[in-house]
């Protein structure tokens, strides 16, 4: 489902940084720990960080898009210049 999140952000003119996590590789657990010391398990992926803060998963992203909160959030984080 990460492709859905990436496509949505690209349609808004945002060029997201994508970090691929291999579900089979336990070494990727270090990446998850390093992401702001936030507890994230692989079943909750994809997760989005906007402006360096955990925004949430795909459901949060889609909900923000539908209710009109996504663009203001991206602007506030400096990801959009419109």
Automatic annotation (TrEMBL):
GO CC, alphabetical: cytoplasm
Gene3D superfamilies, per the entry: Glutaredoxin (3.40.30.10)
Positions in coiled-coil regions: none
SUPFAM superfamilies: Thioredoxin-like
Keywords: Cytoplasm, Redox-active center
Record's subcellular location: Cytoplasm
Principal location: cytoplasm
Homology family: Belongs to the glutaredoxin family. CC-type subfamily.
Name the record gives this protein: Glutaredoxin-C9
Annotated source species: Thlaspi arvense
């Amino acid at each position: 489902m990460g492709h859905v999140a990436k496509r949505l952000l690209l349609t808004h003119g945002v060029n997201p940084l994508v970090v691929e996590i291999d579900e089979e590789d336990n070494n990727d657990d270090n990446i998850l720990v390093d992401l702001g010391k936030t507890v994230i398990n692989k079943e909750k992926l994809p997760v989005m960080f906007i402006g360096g803060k955990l925004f949430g998963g795909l459901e949060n992203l889609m909900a923000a898009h539908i209710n009109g909160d996504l663009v203001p959030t991206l602007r506030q984080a400096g990801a959009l210049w419109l």
